[in-house]
Amino acid sequence: MLNRNNPIDETVAYFFKSRRYLGSHDRAFISENVYGIIRHRRAIEELLHLFFPTLALQESQHYITYFLAYYVLQNKERESDTILAEKLSTRWHSLSFDITIDNFLQTARQIFTKRLSETDGITNLGINYSFPDWFVEKCLIAYGETQTEQLLISLNQQAPTVIRVNTLLCTREQCKIALKEERVECEETKFSPFGLILKKRMNVQTSLIYKQGWYEFQDEGSQLLSIFVNARENETILDACSGAGGKSLAIAAMMNNKGNIFAFDIEEMRIREMQQRLQRASVNIVKTNLYEHIDTRKFISHADAVLLDVPCTGSGTIRRNPMLKWKISEESIAEKTLLQQQLIEEYSQFVKPGGRLIYATCSLFCEENENIVESFLKTRNNFRVVSPAEMLSRYSLPHLENERYLHLLPHLHNTDGFFAAMMIRDF
């Protein structure tokens, strides 16, 4: 994982595909610990660096000590050193260290506790929850100390498995009953009127109702963003940067499959995946397009709403891909903001007078969120921000209002981190 740019789930899936002899228990154990080690990488490396400051670990020792250090961190309040030593002694002896495992465990706890007590607030949070100091500092500025700690904790937790029910084909209750018949228990989402939270992961290849298009996997935050578009029957909606079409599918259902949705993306693979999903969901109002093939002139002042879910750092999705902790940098934020500024200028021209421009990211950082919108509004006096409550009241969700913008955060809403701004074009 440390040498790859792929998301963790892709790498893990590839690993398992080539090792079909692994049983479900082994796969679960491996997945849980790979994700855990990546999530807590900084704390692990801090502990190992202090414990073995001059030790050049061989490859086998390197990976096993990562695992052992992670085990110490995860179990330091649940199991005694004696139990841990007993569980791990066989593997430890195979590594030929000069120190006993009992000594390692005792000293590791002491070192880690002492290290945290000696650090300042930012570094303490950074080590304890395994985030870069600059990341912690940005969160402290944006959310304050109490909220930041809660946010960091939530970003280290596994995201729930959420589906969006395709209301073109069934109701949420019908889908819930059908899933129970497939031995999948679920509960209704707190905010989205179309969502269900699965109580365990499932193999969609064995789900008949998935193949029939009754549901799609979609985070509740993404579902709420689709609701925020406030699309109505017979409107023309432009889904820019559509990806594989999750939001287009949700918007089409809210429009009762009546109207026009134009979905643009720059990657052909995503377009092909979207077309398969549209067919499965029985959606026929979405027209997919590779952006490079579009005559953009015909879309100028044409759309009732433009959803601009821009490429961003993805910091709000760290629960799903903790490797992003170590891939995102202050430099990458600056690069993304340049692209975001270009996209909001370009796509705003497609909104007709009286229409809506929805700017959205799955980022936690104001540089990619409020700052982009405020900068755009300074140069475009024909656009104005509309309160989230005005759009969300249609679905009895005005309590998600956050002053001028919609903010969804893992520790508050149990969703991925999302930002959205609704702007109306007056003339």
Please work out how many helical segments DSSP would assign: 18
Largest sheet: 9 strands, mixed
Rounded average pLDDT:
89
Segments where pLDDT lies below 50 for 5+ residues? none
Distance between the termini: 51 Å
Shape: globular
Query: Structural class, judged by helices and strands?
Result: alpha/beta
* Percent of sequence in beta strands: 15-25%
The radius of gyration computed from the alpha-carbon positions, rounded to a whole number of angstroms, is: 24 Å
How many strands? Answer: 13
Please bin the fraction of helical residues.
Answer: 40-55%
Task: Outline the fold blueprint.
Layout lengths: L7 H10 L6 H16 L1 H11 L7 H17 L5 H13 L7 H17 L3 H9 L3 H23 L5 E5 L6 H10 L4 E3 L6 E4 L9 H4 L3 E3 L2 H9 L7 E5 L5 H9 L5 E6 L2 H13 L5 E5 L12 E7 L14 H4 L2 H19 L2 E11 L8 H10 L3 E4 L1 H5 L8 E2 L2 E4 L1 H4 L4 E8 L2
Parallel strand pairs: 5-6, 5-8, 6-7, 8-9
Antiparallel strand pairs: 1-3, 1-4, 2-3, 9-13, 10-13, 11-12, 12-13
Helix pairs in contact: 3-4, 3-6, 4-5, 5-6, 7-8, 11-12, 15-16
Structure description:
This protein is α/β, with parallel strands linked by helices and 427 residues long. The protein has 18 helices and 13 strands. Strands 5, 6, 7, 8, 9, 10, 11, 12 and 13 form a nine-stranded mixed sheet that branches. Helix 13 links the parallel strand 6 (260-265) and strand 7 (286-290). Helix 7 crosses helix 8 (133-155) and helix 11 packs across helix 12. It is globular and about 75 Å long. The termini are far apart. The model has no long low-confidence stretch (mean pLDDT 89).
